Amino acid sequence: MGSHPSETDFDEDPGNRIGSAPPRTRAWRDGEIEAEGFPVSRLSDYLERPDVVVWLDLCAPRREDLHVVSDELGLDPVAVEDAVSRHERAKLDRYQGYAFLNVYVPVVTDGELAMHEVSAFLSERALVTVRQDCGFDVDALVRRWDQTPHAGFDEPTAAFLLYGLLDLVIDLQLTAVQALDDEADEVEDLVFDDAFPVKEIQKRSYRLRKNLTALRRVALPMREVLNTLLRRDLKIVPAPLVPYFQDVYDHTLRVGESTDALRDLVADLLETRLALQGNRMNEVMKKVTSWAAIIAVPTAVTGFYGQNVPYPGFSQHSGFIASTVIVVVCSLSLYVIFKVRDWL
Q1: Which residues of 64-78 are buried (b: 16+ CB within 10 A; e: fewer)?
Q2: Which residues are bridge partners to 25 per DSSP?
Q3: Helical segments of 38-88, H only
Q4: pLDDT digits (tens, 9 = 90+) for 147-178
Q5: Are 23 and 16 in contact (CB under 8 A)?
Q6: Contact criterion met (CB below 8 Å) for 190 and 201
């Protein structure tokens, strides 16, 4: 497998041995790529130039691995701890001279939802992304930067890089919502299916509600994140990029509204399933009760008059065996019929 252009070489410099995958580096100057794949130790060289914007990506680093970034950006130990810790909530924290961002990228595979945590340090001319695992496709992020018009690059700023990151994250959240929406449609088809597989419906409904709750938990805080970024008094986002971040905010609202709508839909499906199951049970009870009533009449008459007429095998051992066989065969036949019709 060939290396990506922005990957640094582990063997080129001992400082490149950070995390579980080679670090990714890139530098822009006036909106054009100045360099990429350079050693992490040269990060300070590019940051010393006032007209250069740099990006560094780390995958699953340890706390001690962040000393290079910490020294260059003057990171607070609390922010470093949040970057290497798992299961931090989605948030945006502001520090002196930089901001810390934590988001989640959801991926739905065969109905199962996986969350990939991504953190980022944002300063005026640097963006450092920290992935907890390789589940987040950083190549897709690079393509997003390359394919998006470089608005806001009239002056060196990392806000454009942050916009690309947030835009990709929210798009992936919308993709996850669509996948869960498709799953809800399949559950709906099962609910109204004549076969009515109760166990499968229960299993998939529970999994769907669990996934929606998890997605909603990481999607709703994104509103607060975008609101903070768009505050003009904080001056985190340059004016030319405000419409871009506003578009991301609108997509964030769509994610929240879609998850709420899907949760309501799943709740309605569960109520519908219970109603349909009750109706099916009533139909079964009507049929069984009707047959029981039909059989009860001759049973009551013969029992009242004590009828006991001779039959083949009357007062003989063979007659007892024959009656026993008839009882067993009829009982098993009824059991099979009830089981096939899902009455048992």
Answers
A1: ebbebbbebbebeee
A2: 56
A3: 43-47, 67-73, 77-84
A4: 877 654 555 588 999 999 999 999 999 999 99
A5: yes
A6: yes
Gap between the Cα atoms of 52 and 29, Å rounded: 5
Distance CA 159, CA 248 (A): 13
The DSSP secondary-structure symbol of 241 reads G
Q: What is the three-class DSSP state of 7?
A: strand
3-state secondary structure of 213: helix
76-80 long-range contacts, CB within 8 A, separation 24+: 79/121
DSSP output for 142-203: HHHHHHS--TT-SS--SHHHHHHHHHHHHHHHHHHHHHHHHHHHHHHHHHTSSS--HHHHHH
Q: Please answer whether residues 6 and 26 qualify as being in contact, where contact means their C-beta atoms are separated by less than 8 angstroms.
A: yes
Give the DSSP H/E element, type plus range, for residue 286: helix 242-305
Closest to 88 measured CA to CA, from 99, 104, 70, 76: 104
* Strand ranges of the sheet holding 91-95, from the earlier edge strand across to the other edge: 32-36, 24-29, 52-59, 126-131, 112-122, 98-109, 91-95
- 65 phi/psi in degrees, rounded to 5: -70, -20
pLDDT digits (tens, 9 = 90+) for 213-248: 999 999 999 999 999 999 888 788 888 889 999 999
**pLDDT of the residue at 211:** 93
275: how many CB neighbours lie within 10 A of its CB? 11
Q: How many helices (H) and strands (E) does the chain have?
A: 9, 7
For residue 239, what is the DSSP state? G
